[in-house]
Amino acid sequence: MVLETISRIIKIQLPAYLKKLPLPETIGGFARLTVSDWLRLLPLLGILALLGYLTIRPFLPKKKKQKDSLINLKIQKENPKVVNEIDIEDLNRTNVCYCRCWRSKTFPVCDKSHIKHNELTGDNVGPLILKKKIL
């Protein structure tokens, strides 16, 4: 039943549809088509455009930014850079910055590698800053 329906569409209805289309004999004939003629051609032109796109799609350049390479997927995404300050009373130094991008060459201490990471990926990760309150 399904194959009979598909066969009928391909053998009878599609040729009948194509015969009714107002296809001009020359390229200049397209300029003389009426709005009504163009509206009747739209479904065919849409299908041809889709098939053309699907044909060239594998050859199109890939996007350079990959969102799956982001480290921070959901924390404070509305901010250009996420920086947290935490007061800890028993630090040896006044300020300590810890890496959260996993790119620091001095990990776990931040060496500002997150700046390059953010530029390359569009991420917004920043260091964790621990501050000692001075009384």
From TrEMBL:
Annotated transmembrane regions: 38-56
Cofactors named for this entry: [2Fe-2S] cluster
Pfam families: MitoNEET_N (PF10660), zf-CDGSH (PF09360)
Subunit field text: Homodimer.
Protein name: CDGSH iron-sulfur domain-containing protein 2
Single Gene Ontology MF annotation: 2 iron, 2 sulfur cluster binding
Domain Iron-binding zinc finger CDGSH type intervals: 81-120
Gene name for this UniProt entry: cisd2
Family per record: Belongs to the CISD protein family. CISD2 subfamily.
Domain of life: Eukaryota
